[in-house]
Design goal:
The chain is mainly alpha-helical. The chain folds into three domains: 40 residues, Homeodomain-like (Arc Repressor Mutant, subunit A, Orthogonal Bundle), CATH 1.10.10; 106 residues, Tetracycline Repressor, domain 2, CATH 1.10.357; 25 residues, no CATH class. Helices cover 62% and strands 0% of the residues. Helix 5 runs antiparallel to helix 7, helix 5 runs parallel beside helix 8 and helix 5 runs antiparallel to helix 10. The relative contact order is 0.09.
């Protein structure tokens, strides 16, 4: 039997904090009830009194990361509110790149996570979005933030990293790729993120006013 931990008594918050710490250091593959129990100095069975299973632990990690978001602040418009939230979510996700697969594949489940969903839906509904369009706006915004962060921040193992030799391409057959490759040396991914974000907000504004293709069908 393992010695009982002499630190803070076991709790859901402590278990999830430990799981997040392991994930940040070692990656998602390292997360298991046994591994977290070992880190805490307790038997894995002890964790089940606070976290039902591994799925609940992943949902809890999702929640724990979202707790790092600032409290929603009053904004002059729905666009500024969503712009601010998208930037904040991107910053939090960039701080936990190993957690990106969780956000790409799992919905918000716990009440604490759903509170963030509720706050964004409330902003959109107050702005005049229908329930269906509000949900669509939330979904595409979250997908964009998570997807862009995966593309620019997702950890890669050395043997998985791709290093295209653009300079070896034929200028005759790939003139635009060669041109773009020269830009990459000084490329600003944050400006790219902002460009996509503004384009999305403009599209959502059109949808809100009913000028876009029908999202209600």
């Amino acid at each position: 039997m393992k010695a009982r931990s002499k630190h803070t008594p076991l709790s859901r918050e402590r278990i999830l904090s430990t799981a997040l710490s392991i994930l940040d250091r070692e990656g998602l593959e390292a997360i298991s009830m046994r591994r977290v129990g070992d880190e805490l100095g307790v038997e894995a069975m002890s964790l089940y009194n606070h976290v039902a299973n591994k799925a609940a632990m992943l949902d809890g990690i999702f929640e724990t990361i979202l707790r790092e978001l600032p409290a929603p602040a009053r904004s002059s418009s729905w666009r500024s509110a969503l712009r601010k939230r998208a930037r904040e979510l991107r910053q939090v996700l960039r701080a936990h790149p190993h957690a990106l697969p969780i956000f790409a594949t799992r919905p918000a489940v716990t009440p604490a996570s759903l509170a963030h969903v509720e706050s964004v839906l409330e902003v959109l509904r107050r702005a005049g979005f229908s329930p269906r369009r509000a949900l669509g706006a939330l979904q595409v915004l979250a997908a964009y933030v998570v997807g862009h962060t995966i593309a620019t921040r997702s950890p890669r193992k050395p043997d998985e990293d791709a290093r295209p030799a653009y300079e070896r391409l034929s200028e005759e057959h790939f003139p635009r790729v060669r041109e773009a490759a020269r830009v990459l040396a000084n490329y600003d991914e944050t400006k790219e993120f902002e460009l996509g974000l503004e384009a999305m907000l403009t599209g959502l504004e059109a949808a809100r006013r009913g000028h876009s293709s029908d999202m209600e069908g």
